[in-house]
Amino acid sequence: MTPLQPLAVLAEQKSAEVTDWPNRIGWIVGLLLFIALVYWLMRQGWKWRGTLQGDLPPLPDAPTEQGPVKLELSGRYHGSTSAGQWLDRIVAHGLGTRSRVELTLTDAGLTAVRPGASDFFVPAEALREARLDKGIAGKVLTEGGLLIVTWAHGDKLIDSGFRADHAAEQAEWVTAINNMIDTKITTEGTAR
After folding, report:
1. What does residue 18 show for φ and ψ, rounded to 5 degrees?
2. Which of 43, 44, 83, 103 has its CA 20 to 30 A from that of 172?
3. pLDDT (tens digit, 9 = 90+) per residue, 35-66?
4. How far apart are CA 125 and CA 168, in angstroms?
5. Could you tell me the pTM of the whole model?
């Protein structure tokens, strides 16, 4: 065997095709269809959850005169859940839509103005508790990273989660809301 013989054998062999385009295009189209199906199923699940929560009454409108502003905060709204069940997201009336938020606390209650999503108002008499926590459906942070406000709407208790642009402001909100609730309870207790 001469050294040229292996080269001749290699020249006679046909190299494999680099790309099988019809097969590759078929896989890509199949993958894209699968992804579209998954997103469609997720959207249907979201709609179904909204239908199941259809018994939730409409959210109250903010009064035109709310009194002096106690606190203001800008940050993110991360969603609302059934109180105590941090994974049971509420999607009815736009409460499931994450967005930027401008929170304002007054004597009348808590106003959440959300660009690109529906605003909502929590009357002062509906406020039940405020606390710092680490998570709400779809968002988990370090301990104390979220401001959670518990409020009553109809016969349901709701936890709404907010994250301030400046996290140090959140402790002040917890104190102010809880003081407001305590003052209301004390006032109602002495009025009876």
Report:
1. -70, -45
2. 83
3. 999 999 998 987 887 777 777 888 888 888 88
4. 26
5. 0.72
